Amino acid sequence: MRRLRRLRGWALRFLDSRFLALLRKEVQEILRDRQLIKLLLIPPTIQLLVYGFALNPDVRFLPLGVVDHARVSASRELVSALTENRVFLEAARPRSERALAGMVERGALTAGLVIPPEFRRDLAAGRSAEVQVFIDGVDANTAGLANGYIQQILRRFRPEGSLTTARPPPVSAAVTFLYNPGLTSSWFFVPGVMGVVLTLIASLVSAVALVREKDTGTLEQLLMTPASAWEILLAKIVPLFVLLQVDVALALVLGRTVFGLPFRGHLPLFLLLSGLYLFVGIGIGTLLATVCRSQQQVLLTAFFINLPLVQTSGAIAPIESMPAFFQAISLLNPLRHYITIIRGMQLKGVGLEALWPHVLALTLMALALMAFSVSRFRTQLS
Question: What was the pLDDT predicted at 381?
Fold first, then answer.
């Protein structure tokens, strides 16, 4: 009975508290602000879909030009081997090597293949037949991938009736791809995009909401109330936190339904850790609001903060490909730790036993950002 009375007393005190009144006021303002609700729902959906489809390192349907001087069944089989996997698409049959090189130079073709007249004779004699390949190297990434595909296809090419036999390698290996057996690129990019979108939305929305209070003069009105600084700030954070958790759930649904992204982890733990990272994003936005005086300053300052966070997070490019200095600096990037958590839980199904260093880093960053933001906010209110 005593515990029940205590709980009842706490509940009554909470219902009559200044914090609940401020919380109701913030919720009513957010519900009246349709533009803010649209900003929290529509841009994350569009960004996740656009980046999920656009950020794809795979190449498809590269225009290929062919000059076939041999004109035999073996040369036609070679062209079919290059185009059947949809990496290359036969787009032209120039009459000469000069015309082929000119089309590659103009950008009409990405690659060109020249099959010499002695192609059939070399294969019939059991010799290695040589072909010439032109590749447009302006886009170094696409050129490297195209060259890799061509080399792999040529090594495996065995025309019918050829005397050429494959020499067994001294060591053979059975390779198994874990966690992403189909090597689907979107499974790597979509979790990273989720972290990027949450970072942008959490920091910008929280900063703009607080700066708008300065512009409209409502902060001065709050100074007249008996509420303390932490109550005012917490009342503004809680509704945004709930709406941003909706963005997390929306991102999971889109990743599953649109991109076929699996989820192998523990969902409540994932939402809890995502909430921890949302406090980091809100802390960044609150800090921006205490530094900037207008919404324009918030947008410009957020650009210089969020862009380095994205570039050193591993969301788009692997961290291992960065210089050693930036790999060390990225350890201070909260987005890097959150993306590691997302990929670990979604693709690998790991838990705190493997992710605790990243959880600890996010916890320390969230506490530091929120404490510093509250301190500056209290200073401005006073």
Answer: 59
- DSSP labels for 195-264? HHHHHHHHHHHHHHHHHHHHHHTHHHHHHTSS--HHHHHHHHHHHHHHHHHHHHHHHHHHHHHTT-----
Distance of CA 321 to the CA centre of its chain: 16
In the sheet with 62-68, reading across from the earlier edge strand, the strands are 88-92, 62-68, 111-115, 132-135
Give the separation between CA 208 and CA 187, rounded to whole angstroms.
Answer: 32
- Same domain for 197 and 106, yes or no, is no
For residues 204 and 321, membership in a common domain is answered with yes
Q: Domain with 143 in it: what CATH number?
A: 3.40.1710.10
Distance CA(5)–CA(210), nearest Å, equals 38
Asked whether residue 13 is domain-assigned, the answer is no
According to DSSP, the residues that pair with 235 across neighbouring strands are none
CA distance 29 to 238: 13
Last residue of a domain, one of 139, 156, 173: 156
Same domain, 261 and 350: yes
Quote the pLDDT of residue 223.
Answer: 59
Residue carrying the six token digits 């209110």: 381
pTM for the complete prediction? 0.73
Quote the number of domains for the chain: 2
